Amino acid sequence: MANEIARKLVHASGAGIPALYLLNQRFIHSPYLTWESIRYVLAAGVAITVVLEIVRLGFGWNWIVFEKLTREYEQDSVAGYAMYVFSGSLTGIVFEPRIAIPAILMLTLADPISGQLSADELRTIKRPLVLVTMFGVCTLIASIWVPLPAAILGGLAAMVADGVKPIVHGFVVDDNLTIPIYAAVAMTVGLLYLPAVTF
């Protein structure tokens, strides 16, 4: 239980990077905390994660932090944290801030809420309560940055990424990899094709 709490806290800590950017935009106004600078930090995070995974899987150096923060089924495969760093960083590098920030926050903040609601459940599709909660939280987050139609598309995409577990060649596709990417693509589509839709 303690390890699960630690995992969720680390998961949520990823919100610190977009939060730092937003604080700079609002209060600090440092020329060193632009989104371009954030992209370099994200790229560095991917590089460090690749090295850590090579060391862990290739040389068996399973440091205490890995023992605490990886699950048993991740011991011999790429860990969820690596997919988390890769997908969040890729989203931040590829997409503009108004798309990337809510997509990253869906991963860092909404996913742990969904995980808590579905703890100890092994389902191909999560329960309706979990799906609705994930959709609601993600749509709310996205609506701060994009118009409601795009926010709804982003929320739906994140809900599907989190709530449906496809199996490809015997491997379950981890939602740490798919949530921000699906959401960012969906919000982009919403901005491009649903600009005139109002509620």
Short description:
Helices cover 72% and strands 2% of the residues. The termini are far apart.
How does this structure look, described?
The protein has 199 residues and is an all-alpha fold. The chain has one domain (2-193). Helix content is 72%, strand content 2%. It has 9 helices and 2 strands, in the order ααααααααββα. It has a two-stranded antiparallel sheet. A hairpin with a 2-residue loop joins strand 1 and strand 2 (171-172). Helix 5 (80-94) runs parallel beside helix 9 (175-193) and helix 7 (128-143) packs antiparallel against helix 8. The model has no long low-confidence stretch (mean pLDDT 88).
Overall outline: globular
Biggest pleated-sheet summary: 2 strands, antiparallel
Could you give the order of the helices and strands?
HHHHHHHHEEH
Q: Could you give the count of β-strands?
A: 2
Residue share in β-strands:
under 5%
Helix percent reads: over 70%
- Structural class from helices and strands? mainly alpha
- The count of helical stretches stands at 9
- Mean pLDDT equals 88
